Amino acid sequence: MAIDAKQIKELREKTGMGISQCKKALEEAGGNMDEAEMILRKQGIDKAAKKADRPTGQGVVAIRIEGPAAAMIELACEQEPTAGNERFVGLVKLALDLCLAGKLRSAEAVIQAKTPEGTFADSAKAVIGVVGENIILKKAICVEAPAGGLIGAYAHFNKKAGALIALSLEGADPAAPALKTAANEIAMHAVAARPLAWNRKGIPAETVAKEKEVFLEGVKNSPEQLREKILAGKLQKFYADKVLVEQIFVKDPDGKATVQQTLDNAAKSAGGKAKIADFARFELGL
Asked: Between the CA atoms of 22, 27, 29 and 35, what dihedral angle is there, to the nearest 10 degrees?
């Protein structure tokens, strides 16, 4: 049967596929729009499977805040221009939507989350079929502030890194400008300073063990009675470099106040106390 240009245009707008692909699918489906769309979706899935092993060195880190919760995702692709493609941008929005709606804390949970079209994985495969590149949701998390708390967030201008912190407050006004500014600036600090965790407990035991092993090698020729003291000092410096609350706050004018001290001061000005309840930092490719 003859396929008119209006049908081709409609199918192309729905799927993003090329004119010749849409025409061929409509001819195969005898002009049935739904069947033709399904044919193209299946073709997209086949394309996605063929591209699944291709490296993804570009993409974006994106954040969205909704009240006391915030979502952050890392969506990777192969080439920089693809990150600006409207369908890729739509996939970023969908991932954030699903992450926030389900309060999800992993990429795997978002990938499996249900959508009107099936799952996020199905939507990603459809976009892969259109843009012709591998696309992978590498990280995703929803961070929630405790009741009466607040969220701090920062996404770097290049969309390659971001951080979220959730603050629990005791007596402090969550609407206090100084406290809200401090929360966002601490998130910005985290993007720049690259802490491994917000407190010492968050650093994996194996990471600490490896550091100790290196430090012990370095002090093996020191007098035995001094080794423990030297080791303790080196560990203290390691924590000061890698633990968020122990790092020197990058915006402190004197270069002396830690992140925790900065937060304490901001909370005090807001009438109470504050502490970090949750934290996440993403950087593209890491």
From this structure: 10
